[in-house]
């Protein structure tokens, strides 16, 4: 390749039609990358493409090309496994931000991101997405939080929509529902020892999702307290975060209900901290059963399956 002299503000380069077609069409290099090779402005390459009649890439093709080259590897298609899909949707609705790259350009690249002070969540994020796309991770900020994102292809577009509802294909299949629930618990749930008793809770602003979870647990004879408001819209929590909606909570106290929940959710739960806490709750219940000769819960003996009239089972 030969670089000719600069004439005013324009450049004259020697690049044949075949050479340019090989770089732009076959190797899929961008105008910028070709211009860098020839040490000339990108506009010079754009003009030469027009002169040779080589059609410019569409915006969609350019976005795919950037994803494959700039992010260092080809983005892989989603596996299609519906249990995995259910889990990812549950986790996304709980704790992920998802958008389409260049929303106004019909880009096929999907960006998934989160921000957390918990290393277990960062590790889980990597396990979920690293096999499919390019991961970018930042350093800790002043609060100790780490920002992490993944660039995925359009087969992950099912994660873009965020609605306060669980889709029927998930609700109507027990395995898919449990996978969804595990993802949602990994994002929003808590297993804990409270006043020497094991408990489980989900706190969220997703009122619709929480009631659907409650109904489905009730169908499985897992008795739990009806969802209730624990923080009103506009109130500030202990971290100084102001709620833009009412915060709802679903809790399970009963030992038998907790053991049944742990049994059915155990194969699907992935979050290391959540699994550790779940095992602690299970050990607590076994200890209490042994200590009190498997006595039924006296404080939580009643059935919590009575639902308000204005709610209908999913």
Description:
By secondary structure, the chain is α+β, with helices and mostly antiparallel strands. The chain folds into three domains: 15-56; 82-159, Homing endonucleases (Endonuclease I-creI), CATH 3.10.28; 168-291, Homing endonucleases (Endonuclease I-creI, Roll). The protein contains eleven helices and ten strands. The protein has helices at residues 17-26, 31-38, 42-52, 59-70, 82-95, 119-129, 168-171, 174-188, 207-219, 255-265, 272-291, and strands at residues 2-7, 10-14, 97-100, 110-116, 134-137, 146-152, 189-194, 197-204, 228-231, 247-252. It has a four-stranded antiparallel β-sheet, covered by helices on one side. Strands 7-8-10-9 form a four-stranded antiparallel β-sheet. It has a two-stranded antiparallel sheet with strand order 1-2. A hairpin with a 2-residue loop joins strand 7 and strand 8 (197-204). Helix 10 (255-265) runs antiparallel to helix 11. It is elongated.
């Amino acid at each position: 390749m030969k670089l000719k002299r600069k004439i005013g503000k324009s450049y004259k380069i020697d690049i044949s039609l075949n050479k340019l077609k090989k770089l732009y069409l076959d190797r899929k290099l961008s105008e910028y990358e070709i211009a860098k090779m020839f040490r000339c402005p990108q506009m010079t390459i754009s003009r030469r493409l027009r002169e040779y009649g080589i059609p410019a890439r569409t915006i969609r093709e350019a976005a795919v090309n950037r994803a494959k080259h700039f992010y260092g590897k080809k983005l892989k298609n989603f596996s299609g496994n519906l249990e995995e899909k259910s889990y990812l949707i549950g986790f996304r609705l709980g704790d992920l931000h998802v958008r389409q790259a260049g929303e106004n350009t019909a880009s096929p690249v999907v960006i998934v991101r989160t921000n957390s002070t918990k290393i277990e969540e960062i590790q889980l994020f990597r396990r979920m997405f690293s096999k499919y796309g390019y991961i970018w991770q930042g350093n800790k900020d002043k609060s100790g939080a780490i920002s992490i994102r993944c660039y995925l292809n359009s087969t992950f577009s099912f994660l873009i929509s965020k609605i306060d509802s669980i889709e029927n294909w998930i609700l109507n299949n027990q395995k898919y529902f449990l996978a969804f629930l595990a993802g949602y618990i990994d994002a929003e749930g808590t297993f804990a020892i409270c006043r020497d008793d094991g408990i489980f809770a989900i706190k969220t602003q997703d009122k619709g999702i929480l009631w659907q979870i409650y109904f489905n647990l009730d169908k499985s004879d897992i008795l739990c307290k009806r969802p209730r408001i624990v923080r009103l819209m506009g109130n500030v929590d202990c971290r100084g975060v102001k709620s833009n909606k009412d915060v709802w909570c679903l809790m399970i106290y009963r030992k038998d209900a907790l053991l049944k929940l742990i049994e059915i959710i155990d194969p699907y739960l992935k979050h290391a901290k959540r699994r550790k806490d779940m095992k602690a709750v299970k050990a607590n219940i076994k200890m209490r059963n042994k200590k009190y000769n498997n006595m039924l819960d006296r404080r939580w003996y009643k059935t919590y399956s009575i639902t308000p009239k204005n709610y209908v089972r999913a």
